[in-house]
User: Which sequence fits this backbone?
């Protein structure tokens, strides 16, 4: 048995506390799996006096994170503080002094992954971040390693548990967004300030990380088209339900038809109830990966929470520990493909549109003409109600988002269209 | 760029042909991901003249596999012949001469994994075998690496596409086993001799591999309790359907309640239609992993087929190629926990039992008494029909399989029980 590998933990909140607990409870298993004991030698926190979920020897606590990450005896630095600073500086300092790094920090990797990955490469340091996307679900390692011999075409997933909980609640109980959000907050699934979740920032960061790995290119949070779920109404949900669809907040990373660029976007979309993602309930996450040879794969599990996220962190700790013993490191960031990230307008999707129209002869012909002018082909159309209540409900075939948006704009300008009552993208229903 | 890594392929059937195609079609991507070109330098086949799915330079073909695997210039040997011999001897020879090995051979690993893993260790050789279980689905790497910091409690999965296709067809169309099997054969989902699939041998080999990895113990095919699906009738399927269940052939690897042993079994079982595995249709595979911290994870995808299996093989080729360049190797077999594999009688499950009984007062009391004597507690019971057609349908709570079997035996001996009309285990429905 080799000498102990020493771990410094940055942050001791919901995830950090579970990391501490698991390192202790699984001590002998971890030692057997790594080939050396893992020893927690320091925990950097802002408030040492604060009550925590895990019992921690007070002697391990420190407020001096800078010194901890460069301590001579530390082998592995585990960062679960989150946010950009001081996490970035601490990770860079750790790598510069030869430590291996495990992080769960999606915001940092999505905003400034380039800096972090470059530092890893320059310092020959290991950088593992499985916990940054989809919590306990093994997703980055399979994408980065198991699928390294395949060509990923599309990643389509539910990667934010809070919004999935809210949308699932709206779907199952008919609740409004506000009521569902309040319930999610009461149950601890949503934060007091839910902006990062409900506006799609969290999902967008994860989408950037997923896209970068899946397409071997550099993708940042700023490249991601992002729409949240705050404007989804109970009526939208009911209308989707009536048509056999459910509304989910999706993260979609897709190669363009010519293979030369990728689109990365987060927005609510209707998916058919028969689609496996439709059955993802409550705060669960699930990610579909479509690859040329492997076909469609799905990964499902708990996307957040202390213990599930800590499970992913521990898996990474074991990996970097094994690498240190073998004097090697895991795969570096791979961005060789360097695909262009195209704007939302170039992404291809489908659209569900409800129009309040005057019930007059020729209305459908004139509406259809607008779609045709924008080269958007209509898959289904049906008329509901009569007279003043007449509504046209259309679902398009695949078209560029720019063409779809332009079509909607033109529809709004038509005198026979009283209002565009609803517009929602449709995904996961690949009728060509 | 480093000098090319040279690959020898053993076998060029359904999977091998796709490996050849993908190595050619993805040449530049693979080189970029590995950091060196991958070059196919030889393909061992039995019949060089045979028509194949992939175009292969005839100069690469050889019938002399023994010489190919020890050729000085070969770095990586990819074995997709299947079966025990000559695959085993060739893999051992390859390792002895310093090659890295990628194999899809579940039968060999399940029957004699000890020999193969020992040879890998003694020769310092890499051994990757993702394709041996669940085709394209990344499963072994996540279990072996991503979950290395967690404690797996149970693995529950559909790992044989042929039997899932047959059972799904029986469920959706009411077909008999024989008719569904014939359809599967006509569509190429089942072989002319379907024994390995329908008798559960294929699933048992995969269960042994999964259990060994998940529980860090040595598990062989002989340790696996195995029952096939040949005796499932259309009536069984219909009766399960009426109760809101579906019959699936499951591979179950579960830690005992005291954590000291594992049970590994393959048998048909009823699962509730609300269970995610119930929605796995046609020839798809899906595996549930339950771990202490991660909770429930599911992996879903194509479990067989040339291209999907080749995707997993290529992922492993990239991994061993990277390892060779970095002069390191992947994680060794981990059997430190050395858990006892307990016999089926010690496995804990639930049972659905239909009894043809005489419709007399006191029947239920006497039947219930038999369950109680064997310490098996009844969850639900209902009586169907009256008079000569009376049937008692019972579902038990969790009990050892030995107690359940003994209960059934005692029921068969009762004068008031005309026949035990149906017995089926129930899984995936954890009412305690």
Assistant:
């Amino acid at each position: 048995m080799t000498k102990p590998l020493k771990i410094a933990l940055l942050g001791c909140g919901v995830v950090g506390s579970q990391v501490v607990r698991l390192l202790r409870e699984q001590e002998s298993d971890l030692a057997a799996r790594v080939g050396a004991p893992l020893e927690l030698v320091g925990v950097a926190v802002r408030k040492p006096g604060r009550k925590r979920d895990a019992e921690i020897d007070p002697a391990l606590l420190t407020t001096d994170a800078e010194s901890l990450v460069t301590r001579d005896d530390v082998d592995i630095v585990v960062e679960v503080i989150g946010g950009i600073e001081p996490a970035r500086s601490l990770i860079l300092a750790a790598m510069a002094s030869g430590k291996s790094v495990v992080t769960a920090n999606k915001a940092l990797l999505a905003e400034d992954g380039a800096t972090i990955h470059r530092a890893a490469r320059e310092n020959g340091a290991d950088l593992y971040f499985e916990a940054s996307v989809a919590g306990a679900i093994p997703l980055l390692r399979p994408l980065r390693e198991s699928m390294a011999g395949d060509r990923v075409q599309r990643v389509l997933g539910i990667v934010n548990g809070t919004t999935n909980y809210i949308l699932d609640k709206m779907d199952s109980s008919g609740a409004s967004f506000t009521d569902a959000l309040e319930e999610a907050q009461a149950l601890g699934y949503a934060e007091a300030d839910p902006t990062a979740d409900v506006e799609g920032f969290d999902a967008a960061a994860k989408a950037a990380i997923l896209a970068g790995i899946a397409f071997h290119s550099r993708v940042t949070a700023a490249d991601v088209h992002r729409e949240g779920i705050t404007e989804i109404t109970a009526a939208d949900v009911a209308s989707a339900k009536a048509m056999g669809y459910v509304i989910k907040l999706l993260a979609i990373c897709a190669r363009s038809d010519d293979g030369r660029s990728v689109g990365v976007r987060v927005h609510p979309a209707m998916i058919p109830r028969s689609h496996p993602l439709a059955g993802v309930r409550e705060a669960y996450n699930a990610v579909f990966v479509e690859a040329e040879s492997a076909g469609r794969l799905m990964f499902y599990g708990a996307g957040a929470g202390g213990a599930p996220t800590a499970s992913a962190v521990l898996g990474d700790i074991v990996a970097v520990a094994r690498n240190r013993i073998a004097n090697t490191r895991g795969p570096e960031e791979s961005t060789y493909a360097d695909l262009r990230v195209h704007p939302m307008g170039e992404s291809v999707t489908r659209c569900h549109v409800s129009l309040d129209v005057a019930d007059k002869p020729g209305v459908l012909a004139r509406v259809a003409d607008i779609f045709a002018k924008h080269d958007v082909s209509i898959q289904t159309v049906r008329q509901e109600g009569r007279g003043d209540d007449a509504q046209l409900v259309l679902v398009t075939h695949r078209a560029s988002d720019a063409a779809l948006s332009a079509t909607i704009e033109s529809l709004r300008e038509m005198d026979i269209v009283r209002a565009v009552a609803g517009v929602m993208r449709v995904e996961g229903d690949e009728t060509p």
Summary: Residues 135 and 339 of chain B are 27 Å apart (CA to CA). Chain B has 14 helices and 18 strands. The radius of gyration of chain B is 24 Å.
